[in-house]
Input
Amino acid sequence: MATTFYAFCLFSALQLWLALTVRGASEDSCYYYPLPDLPRSSNTRTIPWGEPTITYPNGTTCCSSLDQVRSELDAINSQLLQLLSTRSAYVREATRFKATEESVNDPSRNQEVIQGAIDAAPSVYLPQVVAKMVFEGIINSSVLFEECIFNAYDDDSC
Output
């Protein structure tokens, strides 16, 4: 089974490489890591340029202005903050199951989480570079938070 999975992964990577090599880089190539090495555009575009890429359930598309885009991003940022708050609560809980400060930082687990996010990103149409950078930031800051919690806890019974 592992050989079949390896062959599938190799075949998928080959398909992507061929698509990029034969067609050149496209917008879709910006969703994979590493990002393609593209020349800087010197175009001055009439805005809005391109076609809307977000379609709402009622069939309308987003967005008619930069202000509308920013409003949606602000709402998503609020949701992300709430999710990160919940995640931090679980990080704090995880600390209770670690006997030493050295056990707080588990590089193999950290890499597993980051790589899992990178690998899963295309399935939700998230650019892999975004998944990589965000999860590296989440993991690195979580380790610092967890070390602080571990060191701040004062239990004379230990």
User: Anything to note?
Assistant: The longest strand covers residues 54-55.
